[in-house]
Design a protein that fits this description.
This protein is an alpha/beta fold. 27% of the residues lie in helices and 17% in strands. The strands form six sheets. Strands 1, 2, 3, 4, 5, 6, 7 and 21 form an eight-stranded mixed beta sheet that branches. Helix 2 runs parallel beside helix 12 and helix 4 crosses helix 5. The longest helix has 24 residues. The two termini are 23 Å apart.
Length: 558
Amino acid sequence: MYIFSASYSTWVCSFVSLLLLFSLANAQNFDQAFDIIVYGSTPSGLAAAISISMFSPKVTVGLLYPGEVFGGMSVDGYIGLRDINIEGPLNNTIAHKWAMINAKFYNVSYPVYQLDQAVAKQSFYTLLSRYPNIKLFPNTTLTETNSVVKKGTTITSIQCTTDQGVVRTFRAGVFVDASYEADLVRFSNTSYTYGRESVKQYNESLAGVRPYTQTGNFLENNPVLATITNSTDVLIPFVENDDLNPVGSADKRMMGYSFRLCLTTNVSNQHAWDDIKPVNYNSDDFIMFQRYLDTLVVSANSSSGPDITSLYLISPYRNYPPANKFDLCDSQGSAFTSDAINLNQGYVDGSYEKRGQIANNIEYYVLGGLYFLATSEKIPSYTQKTLKSFGVCKDQPILPPQLYVREGARLVGDSVFTQNDIIPGKKLGNSIGLGSWWYDIHVVSRVAVKNETTGDLFVNNEGQVFEGSGEAYEIPITILLPKISETTNLLVTSCPSTSHVSFASIRVEPTFMQIGESAGIVASLAILKSIPVQGVKPLDVQTVLNQRGIAFHWPATL
């Protein structure tokens, strides 16, 4: 549903003026000028750039991305496109094309969704190489001040710094923010938010601070002490004071971030455990891990300890032909996992330096926790034995280059997609893609809660939700669009206009790639028709998707 102001023609005139200015870009003193600029080489960014080129090889595309990290979570985050509920929505998409290029490398006939880092990267390069109108700019990062120039509601240029410290200016008619951080949104003064809305804000039953649940939590009948000793108020590492708002209320907390390590059962490809030992490692920092294991041993009346796969989710790579690599992730049934709870505070609005510090702290938690479990003499024998049946892969970096920013900034457009809009089977006139993942909200906070009887503080996890969302649901074009009163030539793919709850379903890479592909079509139509992105008709986008054989209604009607 479009929400246009009465002065819509004003926006059109402003946008047409920009396009006329753009045609003179080479006469201006700008470093680079393109029809469309995509910021971020995430899966949605790569899909957007490729989709634009599929629409027209004459449209010039600049693909800018910070550092050397390429392919976001699907390549340098090691998870590929593993989070798929049903495969039907991916048929004929760019995501499926990438998976089939992977299949060709492994000489199989089925799509390969999670794979070796180097192969995943090369498959994306193979796709990009088909479109010479896409120019890549690695090591190109938005400057932290004065990075975006706007004329009214139109972004006219952006300023970036290279790894050599050279400042460059890029000009385009349409911009796509495909980053996980939404920095182009932030620096362009386009509305965004982060954290959790209250239940009341959008009338969402899963919103806000969540009530206590035993799932994914410390044992209620054998809790873990949150302080160093009973006689002190000093908290153990990775636990915070309980400053949570009432259940159902809003806050600025987010799901835990992580690094998704690659494990293997192939002994010849395993790092020695000492290889993953973090700098300045201190085993005392992981006393929470030890205390939780102690409670599990007592509860089970068995000194051998639990299997490591009950503490971490260690999943086989999805459709990976060699079948000997595994993805280390959060386990919904364990109180501690690879998710670094609480450590992402300050990330969204933080400086690049601050974000780097946060990433380092998360690295220490992820690697240090695993090293502690593998090497400490205090770990139960069976737990350690089952862990050591795996090893960290040595045919790619120990630490994935891409931090898993599971949830960050979210665009706030004229329309916000919420839990109430996730309705399987409901056909939307403005649908441009399909979602099919669950409501997958990982633990948000780990706090010390006082026992009113004893006065002791015990550790409690809060925020986890894992509920079904149905087979598939339709995603409207509006999630891509900023408020028309703010920015009229920007599309947002990895941080769309959603609530915290609905984002928990949309946030997986297969869905992001679908959104990115459709965003590429919207950007192309905006350039072709010389109109604001808010003026692109969903029917025109759907026509292109139909031509590509891509479903945007479910059940599919192709």
